[in-house]
Amino acid sequence: MEMRELRYFVAVAEDLHFGRAAERLGIAQPALSRALAGLEGRLGVVLVERSSRRVRLTDAGAVLLTEARAILAAAEAAERRTREAAERRPRITLAVKAGTAGELLAKVLDAYGAHPGACAVDLVLSEAHEQRELLRSGRADVALLHLPFDSVTGLDTEELLTEGQVAAVPGDHPLAGRTAVRQAEVTAAPGPPPARWPGPDGSCPEGPGAAVRNLTQLFQLITLGRATVVLPVSAAVDLRRGLVAVPVTDAPPVTTVLAWLPESRSRPVADLVRVATSL
C-alpha cells in the first residue's frame, strides 16, 4: 500500500462521499475512484460499498481506517522528529488527560526543565481514552496513565504516584458532611448514578449514568446534581465551588505512571522519566 492510497481511502472513509473527498484532496473524482478500486484489487477485499444513495464502509474498511489513521499519523510524527534531529532541536510530546495530575505534572515539568540538556515539552491535553492511541500513532512520545483505569499492555512504564480516591459530591449531598465513606454508600446514596467514562475504543458502556469524557463535563454535571463519581484525590484538588471531596476508604488505590513505547530510543524521553521518578 502507498501512503497516497491510504490518504485517499481515509478521506473517502471519513466523508462517505466520493465528491466531497475528491474536493478535499484536490483531485478529480474519477482518479479517486480508480485509486480506491486499485487498492481494493491489490488487497483482495471490498473496503467501501457504493450505491446511488450512499457510501458505506465494510468491516474490512473499518479495520483499515483505524490502521491507516495510525500509519499516517506515525509517518507525520517520523517526519517531524527527523526534521527536529536535523535542526538539533529535539522536543518531547507528553499526552495528559485534561484536568488530571495537575500538581504532579507541574512538579515533573519544573524538575525536568531544570535538568541540564532539557528540551522543550509539548503537552497534548486529551480525553480519557486517547493517550494510548497517541503513543501508538507517534503523536505523543510519552503519556501519563492511571492504573487500574488505563491499560498499559505492550508499553514500558514507571510509577510516579499512588493515591487514594474520593467521592466528589455537591455541598448539600447526604454524604457531604461525612469524614469518610465506603463505595457501597456512594452507590446507595440518594441521587444520580455514577458517571460513565469511555473505554479504549472511545465508546461509553451502557448504563443509566451520564456519559462524560473529561473532568470539566463531569464537575458541571455533579454541580447540577446529574452525576456522582469516585475519582483520585489529585483529580479533586481543583473542585468547583460548591463541591466537596469525601474519602472513600475501600476504593482501590490509583497509580499514576509514565508510559512510552518499548521501541523508543529517545534520550530526552529517558531523561524525563529518570527525573520524574526521582521526585
TrEMBL record:
Species name: Streptomyces halstedii
Xref: Pfam families: HTH_1, LysR_substrate
Keywords: DNA-binding, Transcription, Transcription regulation
Record family assignment: Belongs to the LysR transcriptional regulatory family.
InterPro entries: LysR_HTH_N (IPR000847), LysR_subst-bd (IPR005119), WH-like_DNA-bd_sf (IPR036388), WH_DNA-bd_sf (IPR036390)
Span of domain HTH lysR-type: 1-58
Name used for this protein in its record: LysR family transcriptional regulator
Domain of life: Bacteria
Keyword RNA-binding belongs to the record: no
